[in-house]
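seq:
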Amino acid sequence: MKLIDRYLIKQYLQTVLFSLLAFILIFVIVDMMENLDDFLDQNVNKIIIFNYYMVFIPEIIRLLLPVAMLFGGLFTMGKMSMQNELTAIKAGGVSMYRSMLPILITTILLCTGDVYFSGYVVPKANKNKASIEKTYLNKNMSSSGTNIFFQDTGTRIVSIGYFNEEVNLATRISIHQFDSANITRLKTRIDAGTMQYDSASNKWIAVSVVKRTFFVNSDVFVNYPRLVLSDLHFKPRDLSVKQQKPIEMNLTELKETIDNQSKAGNDPRIWQIEYYSRYAFSFTGIIIVLFGLPFSTNRQRGGLAVQVGVNILITFIYLVLYKIIEAFGLNGGLNPLATAWMVNAGFFIAALMNLVRVRQ
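struct:
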């Protein structure tokens, strides 16, 4: 590695880190202005408040890392351009493309690491943040209409209104058992007000149960105040995962949910878009930096401030288009994979066209 490469990488990483710290500070201050009164009204311990903002930081980093990379590239190359260092580099026979290479390689490495960070660290932090909000701020409370619907076996469909993972208690349960010889024929249906998992026996115990058995020309129903359901295959952790929001799932959980929803005959679109978007958004930084670097290498009227303003506008347009395309995907208008990568592909082509215009 040449001395100039180490210099560029050092300047770039320092600017990225400084930008991230500034963004984190701004976000935390804004959030404190919104939520601190709620914490104080609930007499929340200072340690809980500190933990809340600690688990908020990963999501801030995920969202603003591409912008921090853009700032890093702009200020590193822009400063060298303003101080005529790029002119000296070109006079030494080094092309602008070669000068950009250390920053682009560093950006690729950062984005690759961000796949794991966004795929596993951020969802865990979001889950903890949601738990604190639910416990102390009464936010993110699941509504009474929330449904968990899945296929337990090849012939059994389970519907649960809501699951409280703190006490392993499910409410509004309905279990449909179909005939294995004729999958369209319903054999039994069990409806229960509540159902709790007994960790000692590893079985579900239903309360206020109505069991209906269907025959060819009739059906019989029986009431049970309490009924042990020993043949159910799912456990509390499975329900907790199914009840999680997509942003609270890591990549492994998203993939499992997609497979389970597909096997059950449900539309896995929401989880697919989130799954593919984790990868797509992690590599957004490469595209934005690739788009912005050509502006910073050429000295333009207005200086660095105008370049920063133009690229922030481009980033804003990118994010707006990203959300618009995502809405189309969620409504079924686009393939989930295309939804996640379409904006990236368009801006990547534009970035390459912009890169060609760089004066060597």
